[in-house]
Amino acid sequence: MAPRLYASLNAAVAVAVIGWNYWTAVNGLDGRTVGGMSDSYDTLFTPAGYAFSIWGIIFLGLLVNAGYQLWLAFTDREPDFFRRLGPWLILTNLANGLWVYLWLTEQTAASVLVLASMFVFTQIAMVRLDMEVWDAPTRIIAFVWWPIVVYAGWIAVAVLANLSAYFAKEGWVSGTSEGWAIAMIALATIVNLGLVYKRNLREHAGVAIWAFVAIAVRQWDQVASVQWTAVGAAGLLVLVTAAHAFQNRATLPFLRRARAEER
After folding, report:
1. For residue 131, is it within any domain?
2. In 20, 80, 218, 254, which residue has its Cα 20 to 30 A from 111's Cα atom?
3. Long-range contacts at 238-246 (CB < 8 A, ≥ 24 apart)
């Protein structure tokens, strides 16, 4: 696909999925909203409601990324970028829109599969673009890496939350099962530790920290085991990401820019 057509399609899909999410948040679908449906399952892995405000950052990132892609395409810069990215971000956004519909129509099993596909799509995009494994210019870090990595980080959490809701709905796991919630927190922690050490994806872990703190807030003085597991997992990821950032401080974009200005 020609870069200009690709970038235009990506922008159109991004705007459409943001509009669809906004419309359903305001108007609902058959009287249901995404937040309302999440509250109806109320598993111990569900974060406090404020955590979902991260979608504002994700959608802003998608718009910034779409604008950057249009700039690349219409100034004939880096044509190889579009070949490497492939259809994966567009597919993620299309799946996002489908997930909203499935979730609001209570097709919970299908919604889990769609979220899982979104996780796979974003991971493929990150690998194909060699995200976080080379010393990229600041504009690539800010306009490509961060939007996609934050998106991927929240999708990773959402897959586990959606799976928990589905299992609770089917009666396979109690929504109040402490063991299941702790297992999900542990799994998310292991995944993020691996991504930090293997792919330098500190931003991905940052999203998990946000989610874990929100889980702890929701369960504060309610379910101590889940509360403190979430706090411990968040603390561990903070320490690991901070240590990793310090060890790799020479490549941090803001410090790198400051050193360049000093010269």
Report:
1. yes
2. 218
3. 238/209, 240/193, 240/196, 240/205, 241/196, 241/202, 241/205, 241/206, 241/209, 244/196, 244/197, 244/200, 244/202, 245/202
Domain containing residue 74 = 3-17+41-249
Place of tokens 């509360």: 227
31 part of a folded domain = no
In-domain check, residue 35: no
User: What's the total number of domains in the chain?
Assistant: 1
Per-residue pLDDT of the chain (263 residues; tens, 9 = 90+): 788 999 999 999 999 999 999 999 999 998 898 888 887 877 899 999 899 999 999 999 999 999 999 999 999 888 888 889 999 999 999 999 999 999 999 999 999 999 999 999 999 999 999 988 878 888 999 999 999 999 999 999 999 999 999 998 888 887 678 999 999 999 999 999 999 999 999 999 999 999 999 999 999 999 999 999 999 999 999 999 999 999 988 778 766 655 444 44
- 260 lies in some domain: no
Looking at residue 174, the DSSP 8-state letter turns out to be -
Query: The pTM is what?
Result: 0.93
